[in-house]
Write a structure and sequence with these properties.
Length: 186
């Protein structure tokens, strides 16, 4: 159960046409003053969610260090806080089209003569359900009245991974993509 949920929580943002990626930043905020960061997340009383959060904590820590920031454990020593929220929802997608339902003989047609066949079609509505993962990442300045000065939102369908190594590499890609528009240290 725990491994299955960890996989579900870690499988954000893969492969279909329902991907979204949005980012926003406070235009007048001075990013140059930022040096240290603490990665935080909401406390949730679910062991599987806590395990998924540990994986994302490591991924965001690594991505921020690659951008030149020092990650600290003590929130009071951080210039800014990076927080994230994970969510999984079931979504339903409907598609309408026409399906061929058979072939019927034609005995007279002005276009085909006296004999032949034609296809019979009927309107069809298809319904599919998919699990979608969403992650929201926010950068907060605790010294400026908890101002959210940058955020990113990503959504995509979930998929399963065969190995933990594959899953961990994917989580790292998600963290890097989420922080792609966050400025690196000068």
């Amino acid at each position: 159960m725990i491994i299955r949920f960890m996989l579900a929580a870690a499988l954000f943002l893969v492969g279909c046409s329902h991907k979204t990626y949005e980012t926003a930043r406070h235009e007048s905020y001075d990013f140059a003053k930022l040096k240290t960061v603490a990665v935080i997340h909401p406390d949730i009383d679910d062991p599987a969610t806590r395990n998924a959060q540990k994986l994302f904590d490591k991924a965001f820590t690594k991505a921020l260090e690659q951008k030149g920031y020092s990650v600290v454990g003590d929130h009071s020593r951080a210039d800014f806080l990076l927080t994230y929220h994970l969510g999984v929802t079931d979504t339903r997608h409907l598609s309408n089209d026409y399906r061929v339902i058979g072939i019927a003989p034609t005995y007279f047609s002005p276009h085909y003569g006296h004999y032949g066949y034609h296809y019979m079609v009927a309107p069809s509505t298809q319904s599919t359900t998919a699990r979608e993962g969403k992650i929201i990442v926010e950068a907060i300045d605790p010294k400026a009245n908890n101002l959210v000065f940058w955020n990113a939102k990503m959504t995509d369908r979930l998929k399963a991974f065969k190995t933990e190594k594959e899953r961990d590499a994917f989580i790292q890609k998600v963290a890097q993509k989420a922080l792609a528009s966050f400025p690196a240290r000068p």
